[in-house]
Design a protein that fits this description.
The protein has 246 residues and is α/β, with parallel strands linked by helices. It is 28% helix and 24% strand. The chain is globular.
């Protein structure tokens, strides 16, 4: 199996709940932008190529990352996470290996956790591996249904979950590693038949499960690592948590 590793970092959103004109990923946690922290995570995990998806005020994001040795894919219209990842396909035409998909607003994730995700993926020669977490209050998140061998059986969104499934505390973190050729192949089959009319990356997973692809699960030891920052309050909380780590 090829050990080549790259990363796609999703950083195109505005972040309307931050109540700021600054692109969300440029907000700082302990003096360093969230996107810079996520790039550091990808490099610590061993990513040889990093493509950042930019959109809202893209010039500002690109300018802030001068000298960081990353490439930029532009998502002109924000049509969802699957659409964002699709914009990166031209960067991987002549490249084979595995692609980490990260979010630019998850500043507490550690390189160590990513390395565990990658190891689980490689040891099992998985087609995809998903980082999960256990939350005391999983309300609003897609719930993970596991097979006995730690592979994914299904992800059930909150709105589709019955009372029994809502008791499950293991959730999808939105952080993944895929075999490159399968990622871009399955993205072509994702539709936008949802209330927002957007193309969502997690929708590739049921398609892969249907085709008996091997999707393994790796649970983060610290659930706070995977929590994204969407509001000013969450930004302050992230700062407080990071102070305890560093």
């Amino acid at each position: 199996m090829s050990s080549s590793l790259s990363a796609i970092i999703l950083a195109a959103g505005k972040g309307t709940r931050m109540k700021s004109d600054l692109p969300k990923v440029l907000h700082k946690v302990l003096g360093k932008t969230m996107i810079s922290r996520v790039i550091d995570q990808a490099k610590q995990a061993g990513a040889q190529k990093i493509v950042v998806v930019v959109g809202y005020k893209k010039e500002m994001v690109i300018e802030s990352l001068q000298g960081t040795d990353v490439q930029f894919a532009v998502q002109e219209e924000q049509l969802g996470t699957a659409h964002a990842v699709q914009q990166c396909e031209p960067f991987f035409q002549n490249w084979n290996g595995h692609i980490l998909v990260l979010s630019g607003d998850v500043p507490l994730l550690t390189g160590e956790t990513l390395q565990k995700l990658i190891s689980r993926h490689q040891e099992n020669d998985a087609d995809a591996t998903l980082l999960t977490a256990e939350l005391e209050n999983p309300h609003g998140y897609g719930r993970i249904l596991r097979n006995a061998d730690d592979t994914l059986k299904d992800i059930v969104e909150e709105k589709d979950a019955d009372e029994e499934i809502r008791k499950i505390k293991e959730i999808n973190s939105g952080i993944y590693i895929f075999k490159k050729e399968l990622l871009f192949s399955y993205l072509k089959h994702v539709d936008n038949k949802n209330a927002q009319g957007e193309y969502y990356l997690p929708d590739v997973l049921p398609l892969m499960v249907r085709d008996n692809r091997k999707i393994y699960l790796q649970k983060a030891e610290q659930s706070e690592e995977i929590q994204g920052v969407n509001t000013v309050e969450q930004l302050k909380l992230a700062e407080e948590k990071l102070k305890r780590i560093v």
